[in-house]
């Protein structure tokens, strides 16, 4: 519950930060005075993706990469100037995830972030268009003279600009980051994303066909910079999930414990560190019944197993990604043949007119 409330507060603050940075990024991109649409979209895409990711994923990175590695003793021993020979135990701060793995905290933070950043805005937008009058091409024809050409009726509708498409692509890139970067913490996130996309496809089709002007078409061979962004995210997801599984889950702990004991008996006691209050000199404010604290500091060598697991998971995941890219082509064979023919015709035209 505390993690959910903390995540919502952080997302609310970062949402204001993202809105300000997004307006600033659009204004700065226009001031750059790009010569082509491609360069304008490339600059806009890089700014939007960096802003969205920096405003969304720091809380998941904190729980999965940093909080799991904090091992604190139950109290900090310190001396005062007046009582140099007396030692005191401060209040205990359990800043790591305690006896539970940090992957549980990542699951809560990731689920709440996905609901707030992906599902809630779409739900509010759909409800707004359902209960509030929306101007479309159909009701325009009923309200005014039907003899007016359709392009004049469409002029009153909202336009589809480069900014509109950039925000749509940015939404999908952020969603792709949700379903890949920390998917090992919440395997149900891709299913939720699929359901949202099925509804979103229908909603966007209605908006583009009925409630928007006809878009100006441009000759493009693909997603351009957005394809490169998605490729970078897919490669980063391998390293992110490897670190998440190694540092924030019990997977390595179980493998390490089983290799030495051949059984899972007393595994819970293995994940907690015990101490004796008599080890602290002269004065101790800790209760005698307090025998163990939430932390994981094994006496045996544990970290080499974690470090060996990282390259193992990373290279296996990279091989799977490369194999999938090789087997599943981004374009069909007919499209590739058409592109080759067009390239040959263009080269021939340049040669003869040259």
Automatic annotation (TrEMBL):
Membrane topology: Multi-pass membrane protein
InterPro entries in the record: Anoctamin (IPR007632), Anoctamin_TM (IPR049452)
GO molecular function, one term: chloride channel activity
Keywords: Membrane, Transmembrane, Transmembrane helix
Chain segments annotated as coiled-coil in the UniProt record: none
Residue stretches spanning the membrane: 49-66, 172-199, 225-247
One family name in Pfam for this protein: Anoctamin
Domain of life from the UniProt record: Eukaryota
Cross-referenced PANTHER family: ANOCTAMIN (PTHR12308)
Family per record: Belongs to the anoctamin family.
Name of the protein described by the UniProt record: Anoctamin
Record organism: Bombyx mandarina (Wild silk moth)
Lineage of the organism: Eukaryota, Metazoa, Ecdysozoa, Arthropoda, Hexapoda
Designated gene of the protein: LOC114239483
